[in-house]
Amino acid sequence: IQGYSGESFNLHVQVYFKKFDCDRSGYIDTAELAACLRSLLKAWGRNSVEAQEQIDDDVVELLLEKFDDNRDGQFDENEFMELLLSFFERCKNALEQELVELKAQLEDG
Questions:
Q1: Which residue has the higher pLDDT, 21 or 89?
Q2: pTM of the full structure
């Protein structure tokens, strides 16, 4: 991720992991993951009810299917890191697309 070294990103993941591992089990369960994703959306200015409601049980289940490598129904720190990498990459791509569309609108306008 641009702006982060591998070590810096790892430290950020550790901070997020500890923050959202509310029960200190050493894992992020589905409720903790939903809270984490909602918090990230809010931090990025996507705190509308519609944006927050997109993080529902179906989304969490899809993320479990994709990133829960050992199929234990929760995320260890490595699985959580892979999930965040994917999440940040998708957000970056969406932002880049929005900027391309905005630039095209300005050029046409």
A1: 21
A2: 0.73
